[in-house]
Amino acid sequence: KNEEIQKKSQQLQEAFYKIEDQNIKITQSISYAQGIQQALFPPKETLNKYLPESFIYFQPVDIVSGDFYWFKEVESHLDLYEEMDEFAQNKKHNPQNDPFLPIENNKFVVSAVDCTGHGVPGAFMSMIGYNLLDEITQNGITRSDKILREMHKGIRKTLNQDEGTNRDGMDMSLCVINKHKRTVQYSGAKNPLLYIQDGKATLIKGDRVPIGGIQTEKERYFSETTIKIDRPTNFYIFSDGYIDQFGGPKNRKFLLKNLQNLLLEIYQKPMKEQQEILRKKLSEWMGDRENQIDDILVIGFRLNGVTN
Q1: What's this model's pTM, rounded to 2 decimal places?
Q2: Residue 14 to residue 20: CA distance in whole angstroms
Q3: Cα–Cα distance, 110 to 71 (Å, whole number)
Q4: Distance between CA 95 and CA 91 in Å, rounded?
């Protein structure tokens, strides 16, 4: 019996070492994948080059993330859906040192995207989505609703969803800032936009359909909302990771209304300070009892509505 016990103990120890070795190799592989994902995404601080008053609060739940942020200064060539006279006006009115938006071209696009799942599956989706956004805008599509429509078509085509069984997709909020018109055009697939003017918060809900996945309608279209910036205005786009996090005395979700109230309290503070307050508030909400359940992404930026 002692020999049997000793033999089984040795077998268990060997199995433990084998599992431990496999875990180390898997973790090393995922950590290497993190390096690839980080190389694809620009540093968060780069957003300040285009939007000096801005922040990106990005906190993946695993080593790699299914949430991702994307932003791009759009080339000033003719947009496929833009009128010829508007394009001509944009070319005449395009100073790089414009305090409203210090970019060379006329438009800047920023998006917060939440892919199906997190970890490795979410990371695969994030890389597909990131490249699609680059491709769509490079092809001259810069209207927010049209970008989302092309994203939906691109995801379904890439994952062969018309014929296969794959149902993965993503939710997203996307803003197109127009320097000449001094507007922000928003479109969302399930995810909202929250903006604050003169101490009043306005929530614009995204369309109730995702990017990719099951499509029952013949064609999928997305709506757009245009906000005129004639006074200082704060904008916030985010995934559901922050508002769905469990915690607090009753172990409940943080909820959208609490995030809105928190942002109303702090929106006048510097953007970097707002980011730190959001981080600390969530940490306090989670406490020692709760683990982070999903990737967290919140993007905030302020436009001052400067007139020429």
Answers
A1: 0.90
A2: 10
A3: 4
A4: 9
